[in-house]
Amino acid sequence: MKTIRRLLFWILVSGFFFFLQRNLSALLSSIQINLLPKDYAFISKILISISWLAIFIILNILVNKIFWDRLFSRRIANKTPSLLKYISGFILIIIFVSLIVTQVFDKSITGILALSGGFGILLGFTLQNTINDFFSGIIIHLEKPFLIGDFIMLNNTRLGDEPLIGRVHSINWRTSRLQKTDGTMIVVPNNQFTKLVLTNFSLPEEKSRIELEFCVPYEFDTKRVSDVILTALYSLDSILKNPRPKVKVPRTTADGVIYQVRFWLLPTKTSPGRGRDHVNQAVIKYLHFAGITLSNARTEIFHAPIKDKNSRLRGKKKNLISEVPIFKSLSTENMEYLCDKMNRIQIKKGSTIVRQGQQESSMFLISEGHATVMVHDDISDKDKKVGKLGPGQFFGEMSLVLGDLRSATVKTDSDCTLYEINKETMQGLFQKDKDLLDHIVAVINSRKTKNQSILEFAENNPEIHTDTYELIKQKIQTLFKIF
């Protein structure tokens, strides 16, 4: 409404002064004023000049409201910068002033044009970087190579040899701001985006594909290695499960077999660098607990006995046992005894290893694969997922040493290799290691005391009961007949 009132006002101004110029002679005669021809011509030129200037203001309003504020803003999906409006207004006023000088006052503007041209060259040379940044910002808004929130990589030589990687925080007309993965904010001149190669991890789709390679010696079966790596990938929440991660064997080298790992992630949630870190750590961890080593560059030859398969398997068992707190005190001899007695079990994907509420007396150590832990919710009458288990982790120790009912259901998410420690094996350990009982009681008592403190805090009930040290010891002695 305000714009319409402005237009009507200037239309009236233009029409009024145009009417005065056309009827100037009659108006002067009616008020009995006699002017010299020279003065009459000058007043007439002034009136028509004012009318033309009013027309300039009308055109400028129309250009700003129709072209800049509607068409151009809609095209760039952003507010038009005021500088563009000032530039278009400046061009229009130059055109109108030139027309008034040449057509109304019949004067030459060659000298003025030469002077303004020289001044424009000097101004452009002085502000060339700022002008370059500004018009680069216009190009960015028009072409939209990236949007706010996109994760991009820019080979920015101003900041060093490493490429600049970050999330687009804002896009302005002279600069754009990127938030790096370390949380810092980088202000980048817009001309850098038009001069350097830019990679947008969020286009044409929001997800991005990452590839990593691992070299494994020839002695390991390729299918088994691929399965272990895939299991590691599926255990991560930071990468996408659809499209599915893939493991391929594109080539071999003198050092071993190359396994190419291909996975997808959302850069807006997980940066490519962080995604690579998560995948590297998971793959190395899962290969380690599966007894699979990565290749090293073979630059020297050593003559030494090669470890047999049983030695490697025993080393893998020891790594698993060392992760269990109740076995931390075992001597070397008893560690060897436990390695010999553990039962190796293969479980297929989707199988239930233990079920909540069952009375069993064994614990399990995961060597390969991963599983989901679920607890039954009495309100919804459904099993609720409460955690995940992977290589190097264990479950069921309370059922083994205390005879407790299974506190949760554990189901496999992939093919799993487990090692089972049963009641007979523990009976033998207690007979061989007289100090093991006190160590296990201390570990369990510490855990129960911690859990009790959490429950008391959560429920504000200091009377929650837990077994004391002596009660736990008596329970184990009774279960395993230790007297």
Summary keywords:
single chain, 483 residues, alpha+beta, Alpha-Beta Plaits, four-stranded antiparallel sheet, 15 helices
Outline of the structure:
49% of the residues lie in helices and 19% in strands.
- Major sheet description: 5 strands, antiparallel
Shape: elongated
Tally of helical runs: 15
Proper CATH architecture of the largest domain? Sandwich
Radius of gyration computed on alpha carbons: 40 Å
Number of extended strands: 16
The helix-and-strand class reads alpha+beta
Major sheet strand order: 4-3-2-1-5
CATH topology of the largest domain: Jelly Rolls
Separation, N- and C-terminal Cα atoms? 98 Å
Tally of individual domains: 4
**CATH-assigned homologous superfamily of the largest domain:** Jelly Rolls
CATH class of the largest domain: Mainly Beta
The residue-averaged pLDDT reads 83
Q: Proportion of β residues?
A: 15-25%
Extract low-pLDDT stretches: 461-467
Helix content: 40-55%
